[in-house]
Design brief:
With 163 residues, this protein is mainly α. It has helices at residues 7-26, 29-45, 57-76, 94-110, 116-127, 132-139, 143-162. The protein has one domain. The longest helix is centred in the first third of the chain and has 20 residues, at 7-26.
């Protein structure tokens, strides 16, 4: 483990992205908070397992986040959903909030048309705000494959949206 890693800096930088990843995966801001905390707890507890030469630290943390999400769903045996918009993502205008909430709920109802892998890539791209290169490192896919899968997934969602 590289002792030069500044945990406070890492936490401050990655927490919003990890939290939004869990929001996309669970659809529940409270569960997302709990899972984010659990993710960082596991990262801290297992910090000696991080190997700088294998991958970057961010990818390592998101690997832990994926395992935490999988454990959560395994325990609860429920479908991935996007039912709730986290309050901090809502704008200050009520009409825009309502419209955003309705759009988010509609998107949640369309997510099951995607494969599990497509849902994961959507969560990493739009929830965690990772770029395709970061997602590729995280998922062991090529960068072009990530782009292709995301493009097809977004196309599927658009087609379902228009129905």
């Amino acid at each position: 483990m590289d002792e030069s890693i500044n945990w406070k800096e890492i936490y401050d930088h990655l927490l919003p992205r990890v939290y939004h990843f869990f929001c996309y995966k669970t659809g529940d801001s409270l569960i997302a908070e709990e899972l984010s905390a659990l993710c960082f707890e596991k990262a801290w507890t297992h910090r000696e397992n991080y190997r700088k030469n294998l991958n970057n630290f961010e990818a390592w943390v998101f690997g832990i986040a994926q395992k935490v999400a999988a454990d959560h769903f395994r325990k609860r045996r429920r479908e991935v959903g996007l039912e709730a918009v986290p309050p901090e993502l809502a704008s200050q205008h009520v009409e825009a909030d309502v419209e955003q909430r309705l759009d988010f709920e509609r998107l949640a109802s369309l997510m099951p048309c995607l494969s599990e892998r497509e849902q994961l890539l959507i969560a990493l791209k739009y929830g965690a705000e990772l770029n395709n290169r970061q997602i590729a490192r995280q998922t062991w896919l090529s960068e072009s494959n990530v782009g292709t899968i995301l493009s097809r997934a977004v196309t599927k969602l658009r087609e379902e949206w228009e129905k």
